[in-house]
Amino acid sequence: MTTDPQELKARIDLTAALRSASRLGLGEGICNHFSLALPHQAQQFLINPQGLHWSEIKPADLVIVNEKGDKIAGRHEVEPTAFFIHSAIHREHPQARCVMHTHMPFATALTTITPMGLAWCSQNALKFYNRVAYDKHYNGLALDESEGSRLSQCMGKTDTQGLADILFLANHGVIVVGASVSATFDDLYYLERACQLQVLAMSTGKALNIIDDSIALKTGLQMQEQSQQAQLHLEALKRLLDRDEPGWSRFD
Predict the structure, then answer these.
(1) For the whole model, what pTM was predicted?
(2) Would residue 55 count as lying in a domain?
(3) CB burial of residue 24 (10 Å; 0-12, 13-18, 19+)
(4) N or C: the chain end with fewer CB closer than 10 Å?
């Protein structure tokens, strides 16, 4: 195990995100993955290993892989298909230092209907205004590099033609990317909350009350200015883990 303080922090942050996602019901079995580019090693990434439930992962369990998905270091193996999506996004969008792919229920529910996706009907949803892209064609499991690259390319398609932070995968799940674990996890959490509100509203059978585009844009920009909230959110989650799951951050 490294003694580099930046890598140790990265391992703790990613472990906190994985365990917190499990506590919030955002995981699915032992599937789905979170990855994070290593400090000072842009072409190497931490990723959760094959076979471990998110709720049992500790910092030392995270595996280091390169951009091709080859294991560089770690006591566990990586699921062979795990890194096809992540490697393409890290490689083609270097600013996406953290990549979180989940099948979380409410967001995934919105990938199974037509039209698919997030409606600007709640304040939570406005956090993602002009930040969302859609892969509208389910193409089976991501079992090769070409499928990972196809999904990565979809992230370049937003209303403003910039990189999307959020990608809805038709009939599948979502991908959330960001510059840090805290920013990415905060988006993941609030995306699921926004989708939950939308699904509940749709279940009434009444029309959604869509917010005007000008207000949606203004509010989305206001939320982006509150970047400190994401780090404070992660630190709060770490305190909850310290209280409820002592030893979660030990390197053993």
Answers:
(1) 0.94
(2) yes
(3) middle
(4) C
Q: Is the Cβ–Cβ distance between 98 and 181 less than 8 Å?
A: yes
pLDDT at 157 over 60: no
Q: How far, in Å, are 20, 55, 155, 178 from residue 158 at the CA level?
A: 29, 34, 7, 16
pLDDT interval class at 1 (50, 70, 90): low
Looking at the domain assignment, is residue 38 inside a domain?
yes
Q: What is the maximal distance between C-alpha atoms in the chain? A: 56
Q: Which domain holds residue 188?
A: 5-244
Say if 250 falls within a structural domain.
no
Say yes or no to pLDDT of 158 above 60. Answer: no
Number of domains in the chain: 1
**Is residue 96 a contact partner of residue 178, using CB atoms and an 8 Å limit?**
yes
**What's the mean pLDDT in 79-107?**
89
User: What's the token pair of residue 138?
Assistant: 């389910």
Q: Is 251 contained in some domain? A: no
